[in-house]
């Protein structure tokens, strides 16, 4: 898990989980409410994608919410090249979840 900070202030965080030697999952990306729409999430996403490449992953996937609240996150992921996909790993279909993946 990594964090983005400004001094002692936490701006955001994110994690990368290994699903296999070639497939990683982006987990727990969050941005502090006061810092939304300032590029924190894009910075963290780019960092996680670089780390995934460094680890040798050829694909990265994620689960995000299907509700309107998560639309900014979905747009961020789509702008980074993620595409919608079926559930992966141990996930199952859920009306509250959307699954996305990106080839690296």
UniProtKB/TrEMBL annotation:
Q: Which InterPro entries match?
A: Acyl_CoA_acyltransferase, Bact_Acetyltransf, GNAT_dom
Q: Which residues form the N-acetyltransferase domain?
A: 1-104
PROSITE patterns attached to this UniProt entry: GNAT
Pfam families named in the record: Acetyltransf_1 (PF00583)
Keyword Transferase listed: yes
Query: What are the UniProt keywords, alphabetically?
Result: Acyltransferase, Transferase
**Keyword Nucleotide-binding belongs to the record:** no
Provide the GO MF annotations for this entry: acyltransferase activity, transferring groups other than amino-acyl groups
**Protein name per Swiss-Prot or TrEMBL:** N-acetyltransferase domain-containing protein
**Source species:** Bacillus safensis
